[in-house]
User: Which sequence fits this backbone?
């Protein structure tokens, strides 16, 4: 029993750590999809930001400069997606796929160009854990929840903030309306294009937080392909959570938990490869079980063209 | 129809100031002149009817007024001042509100949220929902528009949704209200409610433009009527001094038979199409038709009346064999065809004119000749030993198109390039040319112009005289009444009554609203 409790704390802590990039990306995806633009490029946006963050930190020696680089890159590539999907009415899945492929190829190429070799980058200054006084002293939960890096605390705050923005502000009302019936938004005198650009831009910034956390919070270096499908898992969390910030964050935590179990489970009992499947299998199960019933924004994936 | 004191009030209206004038508006789409030098005038406190067939240019003109299109030339004056309306925002700020034919509401949001969208009351950074609800309630109160601000729009009836659309414009302080075919989706009672609301609005000083192709309603509510044909203003008349016949002639450009002439039913024909306790589910899995019994005899037209969405579409599809029946049975000429598909039923002599001609009646990207052979391409003379003979298809199509007055009668024209009325005639040509014994016609004249309606009606009457059994499903009461020998009313997936073609609006309306079952039973 004591052994169980003893492992529960670290398990919870790594659940949070694994869930953090997922929550960021899922909330990002929420802003984009609620505005009616599918963003399967989250995976690519995370990867690009993870890389540019490390590059920024490498040259400046400062984690925050790295974060700035990462966010800027996430925003720029999200805006490319927005330009393709909204202005040029390109297929949103194809544009998203292009961003993923660009991210994979581009980061691989630049690794060699900048750091001289592929694989893993040199160590850079990352975001260290900052225990919050008092709160981190709570038994069991304290160290798990409140002895984390700054970005994790930001993630905590973002969940209620996103909920408030989406459900309690004029911006949120317009965003939700844009994803449902853009014609109604247009006739109400609100620009659909503007709302969608905002939605996609926010998804880029939030996915970038997730990417930077991966390379500079979870690790202190970039390694090629390090997102490992997390962008897609975040999308699954978004659907599983029915495009609701609380639901999506909850689903992201569940998937984070699955990853934490994978890492911490005794490997002599079950083959490691089998354990590594768990998060992905869980994603598929969740999607099959819940996707049918989930109500996606009605206008999602459809470019809006004024008559 | 609502009653307004035409005498005293018309005199008052004549002196009322002009609130809106459109002068010499022209708009072309490629080679088509949708609006050709159109001018209209709207006075304060007046209801102006804008009458014209589908494609006459009414909607284009109103979209120009609402800033959705920009005109090639011409000008718009609001309160005597020339204005430039570049987008709906400009229109709204000039006090122009528009209720579109297809509602632009967001179903998952509440009534209040829909209404304040784009002009939300704020409290700091957040949306002041309490104030939004209060404003909505005040507007409801003032104009007698009953609707609960906290309801989700998805849960409202069509009539209520329309009220939300009107409230949206009132919330934005519209003084000029454009209603595009507002009664198309309403029951007679709901239509009356709407007209009494409109009365309320004009007596409060608003001015209304009512777009419609229904002659009768305009006579009841409007003060003046501007008739548009082929993009041009034909005439503007005072409602008080005109008649339905005059309007029809102006609208179509020739004499029109408003009443369908038909022989009395012969009666005594054998039952050719029947349904027994038929249960059908909709796409969402809900029960759309809950135990329908009906029998259509040779030589009669059985009409099915009802408000849209009461199971008509599902019932028609189940009878035609394109939607499975949950339980119950369908018979053609006494034979149980419940398990047979659409193709097998067609071979037994069933013709089906689907409700949605655009997606279910025709393949838009196919030529008329291909569409004409869509159901019989696998039979001689169109094919033999797995080979298709385009020449035979084209020859047959050319014949059918001529016989059914489809314009252009060109077998190589793309179906999608035809107007709604001609598409419908092309479907009719395909379905009726095979000399079917049973015809299911779902909304055969929806969105079709008056000339084509007349033609389609005559074809149905002709089929009836030839002893065919016809099931007519329509949302247009007038159509059901003038064509049918018997009328069944469908409400919430159930037949709630049977009446004769001489039933009054009120009788039918009550049945269509699911009330008055006791009376008719």
Assistant:
């Amino acid at each position: 029993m004591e052994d169980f409790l003893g492992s529960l704390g670290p398990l919870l802590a790594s659940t949070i750590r694994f869930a953090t990039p997922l929550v960021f990306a899922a909330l990002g995806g929420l802003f984009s999809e609620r505005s009616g633009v599918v963003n399967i490029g989250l995976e690519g946006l995370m990867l690009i930001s993870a890389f540019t963050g490390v590059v920024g930190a490498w040259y400046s020696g400062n984690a925050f400069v790295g974060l700035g680089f990462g966010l800027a890159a996430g925003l720029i590539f999200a805006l490319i997606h927005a330009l393709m999907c909204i202005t040029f009415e390109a297929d949103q899945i194809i544009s998203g796929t292009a961003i993923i492929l660009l991210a994979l190829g581009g980061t691989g190429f630049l690794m060699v160009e900048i750091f001289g070799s592929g694989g893993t980058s040199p160590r850079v200054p990352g975001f260290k854990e900052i225990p919050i006084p008092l709160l981190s002293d709570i038994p069991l939960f304290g160290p798990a929840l409140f002895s984390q890096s700054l970005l994790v605390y930001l993630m905590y705050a973002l969940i209620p903030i996103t909920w408030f923005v989406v459900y309690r502000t004029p911006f949120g009302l317009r965003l939700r309306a844009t994803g449902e019936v853009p014609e109604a938004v247009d006739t109400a005198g609100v620009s659909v294009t503007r709302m969608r650009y905002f939605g996609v831009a926010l998804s880029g910034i939030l996915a970038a937080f997730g990417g930077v956390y991966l390379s500079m919070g979870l690790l202190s270096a970039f390694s090629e392909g390090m997102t490992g499908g997390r962008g897609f898992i975040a999308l699954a969390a978004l659907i599983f959570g029915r495009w609701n910030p609380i639901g999506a964050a909850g689903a992201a935590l569940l998937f984070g938990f699955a990853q934490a179990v994978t890492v911490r489970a005794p490997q002599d009992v079950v083959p490691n490869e089998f354990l590594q499947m768990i998060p992905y299998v869980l994603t598929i199960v969740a999607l099959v079980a819940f996707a049918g019933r989930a109500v996606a924004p009605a206008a999602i994936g459809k470019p809006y063209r004024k008559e | 129809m609502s009653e307004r004191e035409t005498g005293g009030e018309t005199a008052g209206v004549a002196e009322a100031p002009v609130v809106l004038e459109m002068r010499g508006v022209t708009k072309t789409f490629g080679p088509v002149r949708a609006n050709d030098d159109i001018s209209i005038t709207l006075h304060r406190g007046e209801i102006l009817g804008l009458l014209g067939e589908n494609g006459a240019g009414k909607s284009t003109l109103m979209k120009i007024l609402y800033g959705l299109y920009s005109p090639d030339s011409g000008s718009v004056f609001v309160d005597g001042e020339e204005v430039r309306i570049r987008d709906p925002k400009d229109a709204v700020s000039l006090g122009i509100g528009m209720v579109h034919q297809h509602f632009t509401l967001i179903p998952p949001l509440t009534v209040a949220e829909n209404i304040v969208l784009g002009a939300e009351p704020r409290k700091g950074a957040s949306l002041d929902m309490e104030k939004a609800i209060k404003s909505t309630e005040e507007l409801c109160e003032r104009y007698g528009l009953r609707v609960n601000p906290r309801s989700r729009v998805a849960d409202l009836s069509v009539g209520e949704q329309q009220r939300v659309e009107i409230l949206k414009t009132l919330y934005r302080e519209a003084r000029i209200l454009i209603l595009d075919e507002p009664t198309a989706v309403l029951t007679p009672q709901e239509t009356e409610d709407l007209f009494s609301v409109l009365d309320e609005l004009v007596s409060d000083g608003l001015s209304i433009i009512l777009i419609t192709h229904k002659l009768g309603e305009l006579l009841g509510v409007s003060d003046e009527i501007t008739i548009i044909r082929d993009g041009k203003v034909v005439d503007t008349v005072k409602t008080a001094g005109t008649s339905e016949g005059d309007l029809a002639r102006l609208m179509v450009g020739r004499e029109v038979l408003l009443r369908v002439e038909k022989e009395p039913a012969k009666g005594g024909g054998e039952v050719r199409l029947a349904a027994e306790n038929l249960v059908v589910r909709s796409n969402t899995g809900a029960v759309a038709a809950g135990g329908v019994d009906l029998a259509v005899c040779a030589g009669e037209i059985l009409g099915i009346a009802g408000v849209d969405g009461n199971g008509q579409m599902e019932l028609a599809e189940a009878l035609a064999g394109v939607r499975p029946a949950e339980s119950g049975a369908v018979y053609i000429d006494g034979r149980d065809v419940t398990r047979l598909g659409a193709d097998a039923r067609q071979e037994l002599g069933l013709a089906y004119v689907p409700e949605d001609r655009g997606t279910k009646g025709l393949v838009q990207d196919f030529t008329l000749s291909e569409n004409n052979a869509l159901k019989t391409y696998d039979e001689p003379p169109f094919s033999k030993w797995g080979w298709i003979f385009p020449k035979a298809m084209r020859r047959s199509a050319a014949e059918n198109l001529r016989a059914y007055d489809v314009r252009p009668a060109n077998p190589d024209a793309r179906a999608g390039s035809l107007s709604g009325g001609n598409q419908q005639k092309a479907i009719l040509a395909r379905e009726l040319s095979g000399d079917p014994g049973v015809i299911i016609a779902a909304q055969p004249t929806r969105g079709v112009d008056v000339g084509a309606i007349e033609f389609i009606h005559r074809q149905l009457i002709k089929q009836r005289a030839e002893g065919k059994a016809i099931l007519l499903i329509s949302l247009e009461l007038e159509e059901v009444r003038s064509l049918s020998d018997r009328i069944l009313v469908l409400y919430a997936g159930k037949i709630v009554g049977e009446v004769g073609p001489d039933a009054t609006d009120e009788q039918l309306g009550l049945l269509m609203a699911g009330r008055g079952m006791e009376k008719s039973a």
